[in-house]
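Let's practice the habit of predicting before peeking. Look at the sequence and jot down your guess about where helices and strands might fall. Then scroll down.
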Amino acid sequence: MKTTKYIALVALAAALFGCKDPELTEIRYLASATTTARLYTLNEEGTALDPAGDFARGTSVVAYPNSYKKAGEDRYIKVLFEGSEFYVHESALALTPREVVREQSIWVRTPATLIADPERSTIAGFADKNTQLTVLGYDSLRADGSVATYRVRVGESGEGYIYGKYTVFTPEEAAKRYKADLYDPIHSKVKNSFGGGKAIGCDFYPVEKPAFEHNPMPKACYSLYLNAGTNVLKNIEAYIALAKESKINTFVIDIKDNESPGYKADAMATYSPTNHKRAGDKEALYRKVVSRLHEEGFYVVGRITCFKDSYFVKDNPQCAITEKATGEPFKHNKAYWPSGFDRRVWEFNVALAKESVEKFGFNEINFDYVRFPDRMSKVEDIVDYHNRYGESKVQAIQRFVQYACDEIHKVGAYVSIDVFGESANPGYTTAYGQYWPAISNVADVISGMPYPDHFSNGYYGIQKPWNNPYEILYEWGKRVQGRQQVTPTPAVVRTWVQAYNVMRHVDKNGIAYDAENVEKEIRGLYDAGLTGGYITWLASSNIEKYRQQLGAFQKDYYAEWHQEE
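Done guessing? Here is the structure:
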């Protein structure tokens, strides 16, 4: 008690007579308008300050507010950090951790989605490269002092949240392109022959790909595809038994296909009541199926088709590709297509993905139809894509993938993106907006669909490629390697393989895709160096067909490839 009274008297005397205790200490936090603050040490003579290093803002130090050195008009406060004495400019000290972020403006380096509600992943708008943003707040700091998410204002009106990794502190930094001397000449040479957009308009800054400790991705996923039919899902034990006779370690299960929604998801009720109405009451079945697969040690992927969704268009005609003359949704390939430029359809598919991960525990979400309609050259002038932000198709597709990965990673799942086999070809961007390097740079997994019976006769110099599965997949795989090599942070390549017989309209004398021919496809991929695994495309998911192909699934291609290496 006497000690307390003594301290109080000393404090009162200091207040009355202006005395300052040089040994007074306070916990302070390094603050800055960038990610770091600089500490200094006294030189040997004790007459000047020398830089000692830059340390992450938010770092706590013991400050001596009454002990300082002056340099001109500036004051440098003495601090104790990790047992050593330093000095720091008084403006670089904050009283609380919430006050350490000092930047008032930031600039967009990588074009990014502005989020309205980070919890629900709803979209507020879009911020293009070089856009100046006013900082209104932030959520948290990373260990290096960078902000995870800023709350910002765009211009005088719009507000939202942007991930700090897409921003920088000066307009000069924002204007730069990543390794422009290396990558710009490559992508600027890519032709925009079919209206998909200029490759150089995409962003190629490196993307940090996650590796979730609780959710390890197999080095090679050997995958069976299952549709959402009740007869298929209820027969899961038979598929498990088949898989356990082989090296199959992954199942890909439909969540939503066009006009075939799997279960009555809350996201469907919110965004697309028709999808919700047409879905089966299969939530319990999905829960059981995914749980059983996990019990048996399988990696489980949920498949969602994005920009081909007639039910969504029925509920949201304003989001559709429409006819200019009538304003009505445009029907293409027997379906209505939401526009890939429309952010509401982005929200729907990502909300459905996150819900499915959280309800059932999917390890990964696979997005299919991440593109605009193909074969549109004759009707481009009569349709309206409702391109609000003036984006090219390849830009919109890359930006959707970026948004999807950011939001789905929050719930601890990976993202794979399906692309046409054609997108591996060098020299041009596709008419429907898939540019391999732009997608691969952002996604966790990229899954081409080079089905042999989809190649025309003579493609890559191969006669009847559908009857030569090894040759066509090997040649295709070599071209994929070329696209991966011009991608700063390439995705894992996990490829869809044809598991159905050659379609009769292609060749009535085409081969059956039995174990031997499916194996040839897979070996073509591995011999080309694509070692991320495969997924069987068999729309019916017929288990008897899979049994006929069992020999192909019993090989450990990844292990064999490494032995050869």
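How did you do? The first strand starts at residue 26 and ends at 30.
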